[in-house]
Amino acid sequence: MLGKYESMIVFAPTLSADEIESENKKILDLVVLHGGEIVKTDIIGKKQLAYEIAKYREGYYIINYFNLDTQKTHEIDRHYRLNERMLRYNIIKLDSEE
Predict the structure, then answer these.
(1) What pLDDT is stored for residue 1 in this prediction?
(2) Looking at the DSSP assignment, which residues form a beta bridge with residue 22?
(3) Is residue 1 part of a domain?
(4) How confident is the model at residue 79, as a pLDDT?
(5) CB-neighbour burial class of residue 86 (10 A; exposed 0-12, middle 13-18, buried 19+)
(6) Domain-embedded: residue 62
(7) Domain CATH code at residue 38
(8) Of 20, 55, 66, 80, which sits 20 to 30 A from 34 (CA to CA)?
(9) How many domains does the chain have?
(10) What distance separates the 2 farthest-apart alpha carbons in the chain?
């Protein structure tokens, strides 16, 4: 069963724009590989963090919206956990009205 998801990722601010784009493309490709569909990507850009994370005061924010089988989200989460370039991330299941 496909679910609607939002995933916000905070990348380390030391990455170049090309590196961030490449990292996000890997995520989007992984969603498609597991039978998902990309709805939209919002690139928020570099923002001040609320608190220091791994000695960084800023992070580069990207939000991806996608549809994916609810049983496949663990594959995306696994990729996030193994990626050392990400400071923080989340995967939120959206209500069908959103």
Answers:
(1) 80
(2) none
(3) no
(4) 95
(5) buried
(6) yes
(7) 3.30.70.60
(8) 20
(9) 1
(10) 40
Query: In Å, how far are 12, 35, 58 from 76, measured between CA atoms?
Result: 19, 12, 24
| Residue range of the domain that includes 81 | 7-87
Residue 31 to residue 63: CA distance in whole angstroms = 14
Residues 6+ apart with CB under 8 A from 94: 3, 4, 5, 6, 65
pTM: 0.92
pLDDT in tens, 43-90: 999 999 999 999 999 999 999 999 999 999 999 999 999 999 999 999
CB-neighbour burial class of residue 19 (10 A; exposed 0-12, middle 13-18, buried 19+): middle
In a domain, 92, yes or no: no
What residue has token string 């989460």?
Answer: 77
**24 part of a folded domain:** yes
